[in-house]
């Protein structure tokens, strides 16, 4: 499942590792042999249910160009109207916006250690699981946590933000 760490770890992965260590999180990030760019790839690589993947979806808030991060369960789709009702009108975020605002590339956006702190919402559907896995700053990087640890690490509110 995991590969030996490459001699030079990607900066995004290292940033997440430092943030987790500083927060006293008990689980260090893992660098997988294969890319876990999508929720399905990550679930397959880890041998877990798709819903246990805490996927990070970034939007652009129209009023101030802030990044809006929705951390949702891998088996759910974000309801943009529900998100907009909580944070104001939003639009799609392209790869350049995501990289500039978060410091991470799409497929590796972690829920913490962002270049600029985003407005963050946590999908309540993640609480169906005792253990979830989130991206660790690189498409091959992941780390394990509980939904309650995610809430504590991000300070973000839990909300209903997915399609029915």
Instruction: Describe the main β-sheet briefly.
Output: 8 strands, mixed
Report the structural category. alpha/beta
Task: Report the portion of residues in β strands.
Answer: 15-25%
Q: Helix amount, in percent? A: 25-40%
Query: Between the first and last Cα atoms, what is the distance in angstroms?
Result: 33 Å
Mean pLDDT: 94
- Low-confidence segments, ≥5 residues, pLDDT <50? none
Q: Which outline best applies?
A: globular
The strand count comes to: 8
Tally of helical segments: 5
H/E element string? HEHEEHEHEEEHE
Alpha-carbon Rg, integer: 15 Å
Describe the SSE topology.
Elements: H1 11-22, E1 30-31, H2 39-46, E2 53-61, E3 67-73, H3 80-87, E4 90-92, H4 95-102, E5 119-123, E6 132-135, E7 141-145, H5 147-154, E8 158-159
Parallel strand pairs: 2-6, 3-5, 5-8
Antiparallel strand pairs: 1-7, 2-3, 2-4, 6-7
Task: Give an account of the 3D structure.
By secondary structure, the chain is of the alpha/beta class. The protein has 5 helices and 8 strands, in the order H-E-H-E-E-H-E-H-E-E-E-H-E. The radius of gyration is 15 Å and the shape is globular.
What is this entry, summarized?
This protein is α/β, with parallel strands linked by helices.
List keywords for this structure.
alpha/beta; 164 residues; eight-stranded mixed beta sheet; globular
